[in-house]
Amino acid sequence: MIHKDSNFNNVFWKFSLEFYDRPKVASRLISLQDDLGVNINLVLCCFWSADRGFSVLTQQVISDLNAIVEDWNSLVVKPLRSVRLGIKHWESGKYEKIREKIRGKAKDLELSTEQFEQMIIYDYLNTNTGSSVLSEQDKIEIAKSNLLSYLGFLKLNTRADPEMLDELLDSYREFFKNSIQ
């Protein structure tokens, strides 16, 4: 299958921007990333794939998704994040406006690399899995199962804060309800 550049602005990316913007979602995802080392795009995939009606992500699919984005994430996304955060936390009152401009450009580039990573995930799921019409409750249960499976794959399921995970699932439930109204 030939992948098109038009997949860069796909429904997964649009879903992610809207869901990430929900109250507490960004802070919870960043906590999972910083505290446990999870890939936020794969966590977002756990929710989006349920939202799109995909069946529960199997351990094989989760392993495949992790494998296809692992190098990109390690070699491109994380170093750019590190650069952006380094600029942000650099302790100097000098050249603040110029530093902020550079940090803004680094942030834009980092966001583009995240979007590219999501395109890879999007293409994989649309090529290798099927979807169906699911009830609201089914989507919520699938999202929960996907999230727990991903954390289990990373051997982090016992280290993740259950309250934080419940808050993410509650945010998804609210997001889902608001999107169908």
List the SSEs and their pairings.
Blueprint: H1 11-20, H2 25-36, H3 40-51, H4 59-89, H5 96-128, H6 136-153, H7 162-179
Question: Can you offer a commentary on this structure?
Answer:
This protein is mainly α and 181 residues long. It has one domain (9-121, 134-179). Helices cover 74% and strands 0% of the residues. The chain contains seven helices and no strands. It has helices at residues 11-20, 25-36, 40-51, 59-89, 96-128, 136-153, 162-179. Helix 4 packs antiparallel against helix 5. The termini are far apart. 25% of the residues are buried. The model has no long low-confidence stretch (mean pLDDT 91).
Relevant terms:
mainly alpha; 181 residues; 74% helix
Q: What does the average pLDDT come to?
A: 91
User: Helix/strand/pairing class, anyone?
Assistant: mainly alpha
- In whole angstroms, the N-to-C terminal distance is 36 Å
What share of the residues does DSSP label as strand, in percent?
under 5%
Q: Helical region count?
A: 7
Helix content: over 70%
Biggest sheet, in brief? none
Quaternary state of this entry equals single chain
Shape: globular
